[in-house]
Design a protein that fits this description.
By secondary structure, the protein is an alpha/beta fold. The protein has 15 helices and eleven strands. Bound molecules: glutamine.
Length: 491
């Protein structure tokens, strides 16, 4: 049955339509793959009974010719998405065994369209991290290894479980979220395709909030086409999220294979960092050459405020996080550690329930929002954010269709290798991705090559607001030129 797990979503859809196999068979094959891959720690909750029930129900519908656009496709769900009657923890001890009585809008749209839920995927605690090492369920293991080495590598984060599971053929696609890079960076580390949609494209309702003005849900898949298929189901207006935008959802798949001839692609000079590895530099010029060969025109552009993006992000994101996380008080959800007074109950619960990185963010956030420092830090970071957004607007106003950059400054690194002494070392992973969240733009990460040790590297394309279609067209060009990359199975 292993071949059932190596298909793309597009191929599986065709197979199901032709009745070559059933959704139950497809689901069973993935459940077996998950069981055999527990060493990766990608799934933190397997829901086999529910998966089989969903698969059987959808098989009955397919038989009647009623299947939706994702009919029978088994998916993994990041544990940040509330799933009705299924434990949802954001991988934090503080949520304990919280079982939501409601379903997130994004996942409910996937089920509406016939997808099957295999289980919940590991992530960094409250999506804070770039390596999936801050989860209370322990780190996720990247299915990729350096050539000739057994070193355990991180899959990136915070959607590390999603990326690892998709790369290791445990699910055909996964939901993920991206606040500063958490879809695109793990996609780059695992040779998967990750899409961070325009802010407002996917509803945030029912997704555990990290930094509400930056958070966006999006898909991780094995091909650009599959990501486009998933996006169509995930996107859409939702009156329950006031920041969700009321715009028709296009048929993203139709953008696959569309000509990119004549498109102007910006190459921003500020993304050429000092000391950038030669391999990243090479990948970037190769990507540019592929787009040129497909008829696009390369244009040097400038995004002058790029260097302020990461510092500004690490003010805005923790500020919003400290406010969002105030609700975890030991009274309403999950963990409760008693105390002699209500104040002590709060303190004990939060001290026990939050991990180190989350506590650091709450402290930074509270500090930058405090009366004496608000103007100096928070307000100034918001002004910088406006300038970053304007850099992109200026660029697009000159007729640029999309911007090409590396997705990450390096390939995947070892568990425990980064950020131990200095958290900024970890934060630097998102140097190329946070700008996109600060500006609310869509971005896609597409596998584009490997480094000298055989590890995958990705390219990022940044688009105009609500122009994900152009990103899918360009992503497909990169994918066709670079080919696809699959880790060698060792687990
Ligand atoms: N790594 C970044 C952070 O830790 C981004 C995380 C994310 O996108 N959720 O904040």
């Amino acid at each position: 049955m292993t071949d059932l797990t190596s298909m793309t979503i597009a191929e599986a859809k065709a197979g199901l339509a032709k009745k070559s196999f059933t959704s139950l068979e497809l689901t069973d094959a993935h459940l077996a793959a998950i069981e055999a891959a527990r060493v990766l720690n990608a799934f933190i909750l397997e829901t086999p009974d529910q998966a089989r029930d969903m698969a059987r129900a959808v098989d009955a519908k397919i038989a009647k010719g009623e299947g939706g656009p994702l009919a029978g496709i088994p998916l993994g769900i990041k544990d940040l998405f509330a799933t009705k009657d299924v434990r949802t923890t954001a991988c934090s001890k503080i949520l304990g065994n919280f079982v939501p009585p409601y379903e997130s809008t994004v996942t409910s749209q996937l089920w509406r369209d016939g997808a099957v839920m295999l289980g919940k995927l590991n992530n960094d605690e409250f999506a804070m991290g770039s390596s999936n090492e801050t989860s209370c369920f322990g780190p996720v293991v990247n299915p990729w290894r350096r050539e000739g080495s057994n070193t355990t590598l991180v899959p990136g984060g915070s959607s590390g479980g999603s990326a690892s599971a998709v790369a290791a053929l445990l699910c055909m696609g996964a939901t993920a979220t991206d606040t500063g890079g958490s879809i695109r960076q793990p996609a780059a580390f695992t040779a998967t395709v990750g899409v961070k949609p325009t802010y407002g494209r996917c509803s945030r309702w029912g997704i555990v909030a990290f930094a509400s003005s930056l958070d966006q849900a999006g898909p991780i898949a094995r091909t650009t086409r599959d990501a486009a298929i998933l996006m169509r189901s995930m996107a859409g207006h939702d009156p329950k999220d006031t920041t969700s935008v009321d715009r028709a959802v296009p048929d993203y798949e139709a953008a696959i294979g569309k000509s990119v001839k004549g498109m102007k692609i910006g190459i921003p000079k500020e993304y050429r960092l000092d000391g950038m590895p030669a391999e990243i530099e090479k990948l970037w010029s190769e990507g540019a050459a592929w787009l040129k060969a497909a008829g696009a025109e390369l244009v040097d552009v400038s995004l002058p405020h790029t260097k302020y993006a990461l510092p500004a992000y690490y003010i805005v994101a923790p500020a919003e996080a400290s406010s969002n996380l105030a609700r975890y008080d030991g009274v309403r959800y999950g963990l409760r550690v008693p105390g002699r007074s209500i104040g002590e109950l709060y303190e004990n619960t939060r001290a026990e329930g939050f991990g180190d990185e989350v506590r650091r963010r709450v402290m930074i956030g509270t500090y930058v929002l405090s009366a004496g420092y608000y103007d100096a830090y928070y307000l100034r970071a918001q002004k910088v954010r406006t300038l970053i957004k304007k850099d992109f607007e200026d660029c697009f106003a000159k007729g640029i269709s999309a911007i090409l950059t590396p997705a990450t400054p390096s390939a995947a690194f070892g568990v425990g290798e980064k950020g131990g002494a200095d958290p900024v070392e970890m934060y630097l992973n998102d140097i190329f991705t946070v700008t996109v969240n600060m500006a609310g733009l869509p971005g896609i990460a597409v596998p584009a090559g490997t480094d000298a040790q055989g590890l995958p590297l990705g390219l990022q394309l940044i688009g105009r607001p609500f122009d994900e279609e152009t990103l899918f067209s360009l992503g497909e060009v990169v994918e066709q030129a670079a080919g696809r990359f699959t880790p060698q199975r060792w687990w």
